[in-house]
Amino acid sequence: MTDISYTNVNDNTPVLVGNSQLTDKKGINGFNYLEILKEVSKKAILDCDASIKLNEHIDTVAVIRFVADTPHRDSATSNLWGYPNMPRSLSNALNIPNQNEIYTTTGGNSPQLMLNEVANRIKDNQIECALLAGGEALDTFVGRLKEGLEVNWADDSGGRPESIGKSLDGTNDHEKLHGLLDPSSVYPLFANSLRGVNHQTVDEHMQDTGMLFEEFSRVASNNEFAWFPIHRSAEEIAEVKPENRMIGLPYTKYMNSIMRVNQSCAIVMMSAKKARELGVPESKWIFMYSGACLNDIWNVSDRVDYYSSPAIKACTDSVFDLANISINQVDFIDLYSCFPSAVQIAMKELSLEADDPRGLTVTGGLPYFGGPGNAYVMHSIATLMDKLRAEPGKFGLATANGWYITKHGAGIFSSKPFEGEWNQVAETSHIQKSIDTADKPNFTETPQGDCSIETYTITHSRNGPDKGIVIGRLKDGKRFIANTERDTSTLEYMCHEEMLNALGTVSNDGKRNIFKPNL
Description:
Strand order of the largest sheet: 5-3-2-4-8-1-9-12-11-10
Shape: globular
CATH architecture of the largest domain: 3-Layer(aba) Sandwich
CATH topology of the largest domain: Peroxisomal Thiolase, Chain A, domain 1
């Protein structure tokens, strides 16, 4: 680091100076939500190595929204949730006299969105030092509920935090009616569309996915913070068996994100001026060279297709343009990996191959490292920080994804000092308008007649095939959503036969649209 100069780093340049990650596997005796954020935040503050006590200088505390606090959802936790202002609860627990309290909306893009917002406020001299925290204590929470144990975790510290982000639910009522709600039922729709474009059978696609995610599993097996530090082979990931049952065709259990975890992460960000004032060693400094957030067409039923993402393409193009580097100059990559289709679509938009020698994850990904709700990207950024500190001058890319390949974020990071005026959050309103106004397929909620399947999935319970979800087209090109009848013969047929572009009929049973294949 002796040959790197920080002299030309402007005072109002935001720098990431501390981070910590925590994985708590104590089950029903684990941390509650406030405790798991408090513990990891204390460690992140210490990681700054400041020569002056940091707590009293933190003027902003920002927290990623918890899964149990997701609006518009029926949840076993909804009547138990007791943290109406977690930023203030966390501040009180850490003796931080902060002035600004921020809480994000729902979405895995939230960490990048929050980072962009805080960085801009530092750049504009509105704030000087922020603590960003996120995580989940779902494993303990759910475990205690199942055991009939008390969950008295409430802490109403007063007031309400500022909310940032788009709070609109991920699906509309018509989509929900037909099962487009749980991510495990929606992401397989993208998977089958992708394999159609790639001219693959279900088995071929599953084998490719197994090989892709074997590398993610290998990275997780070497990560001390991973929830499942186990190296699973491609065959183990793709093979359907009792311990790896089918969830939503073509995805097995080992291909699904795991949310029931106790994991947390915290990051400290401040101005370069404040870092100098507090004596934070420059060896700790990491710069966000660029950040951007964009949304795809909001509703899944309105997407132009199910194998691409204009927002991922535009979002990543924006961060590379702002950072003035290309994907070839990035040394570390973490693609958001809740489900394989999220990775595969991002690969497509970034022109990355599965065997890229840099790898596509630094953590191990959400099915193996763990998917702590909306906060996973906190961990990918923290992991990048550690790697970039160890190898000065290199660059790292993290992507983020919320809802159903809907809300996106991307950030580029480096220990290389950022010189000159920092203005590195992309202004994307004009791009967003272009995405929102793209031509969409005509959609009908009341389809009738002959049709074909555009994409589909068969969801499974522990007892086998449970429900078919079809996105199809009528003869006139209008798109519709339907379910299949829940008879065993139809579901089994659709599990074992090629159903992309398959013909059938659609009608309404008085409640839902029902697709019947031409058997």
